[in-house]
Amino acid sequence: MYVLYKTGKSVETSMGLTPLGGIVMGTRSGDLDPSVVTYMMNKENLSPEEAENILNKKSGAYGVSRVSVDFRDIEEEANSGGHHAKLALKIFHNTVSSYVAKCIVAMGGIDVLTFTAGVGEKGQDSREAICENLKIFGVKLDKEKNQKIKGIEAKVSSEDSKVPVYVVPTNEELMIAKETIKLLNK
C-alpha cells in the first residue's frame, strides 16, 4: 500500500476506501470485480461479515498459495515447484508492477524506484520480477548486486538503467515515535 505525493499533495494511492483494495497483500484480496463478493456470498451462503473476513484475512497471497501469509514461505514453496505458490507470487508481482506503472502515469514519469518494507527490503526475487515487468520504462536491475542486498540501503539498478532503483529499509516504529512526540509537544 502506498500514497504517492507530488509537491506535497496526494496524487495516487494503491488503496480504495479501505486497504482491501489495491495491491494483493499477504491476506487481503486486493482489487477484484465487485460481483465476486455477491457471487461468493450467494454460493457459500455467507453473511457480509463472513465475506469481509475472507477478503481481508483469508485471501491474497495466502489464499492463492495455500501456504502462508509470509512471503518467505511462499517463495520457498514456489522454488520447490508449488504451483499455487508460483501463481501467488506472479499475481503479487504483476499487481505491484501495474500500480507502479499507474503511478508513473500519474506523476508524468519516474525519477527513482524504491523498494521498502518486508518484501521490498528482503525479497530479492520479487524485486527482480517487478523490475523485469517495468523494463518498458527503462528500469534495469543489476541482478548480481540485487541478490546480495537484503535489508540494507543500497542502489540495485544497473549502471545503464534509465531509472535508479534503491532498497531502503523502513523504521516504522521510529516514525511513529517521532510523530507521537510532535503531537504531544503541540
Account of the 3D structure:
The longest helix has 25 residues, at 83-107. A hairpin with a 2-residue loop joins β1 and β2 (9-13). This protein is globular. It contains nine helices and five strands; from the N terminus they run ββαααααβαααββα. The protein folds into two domains: 1-109, 2-Layer Sandwich (Nucleotidyltransferase, domain 5); 110-186, ATPase, nucleotide binding domain (Nucleotidyltransferase, domain 5), CATH 3.30.420.40. A three-stranded mixed sheet has the order 3-5-4. The chain has a two-stranded antiparallel ribbon with strand order 1-2. 51% of the residues lie in helices and 9% in strands. α5 (83-107) packs across α7 (124-133). The protein has 186 residues and is mostly helical. The two termini are 29 Å apart.
CATH architecture of the largest domain: 2-Layer Sandwich
In CATH, the homologous superfamily of the largest domain goes by the name ATPase, nucleotide binding domain
- The helix content is 40-55%
Write down the CATH topology of the largest domain: Nucleotidyltransferase, domain 5
Computed over alpha carbons, the radius of gyration is 18 Å
The total number of structural domains is 2
Q: Whole-Å distance between the termini?
A: 29 Å
Secondary-structure element string: EEHHHHHEHHHEEH
Structural class: mainly alpha
Number of helices: 9
Largest sheet: 3 strands, mixed
General shape: globular
Please indicate the percent range of residues in DSSP E strands (runs of 2 or more): 5-15%
Spatial strand arrangement across the major sheet: 3-5-4
Mean pLDDT: 91
**Topology, number of strands:** 5
Low-confidence residue ranges = none
Under CATH at level 1, the class of the largest domain stands as: Alpha Beta
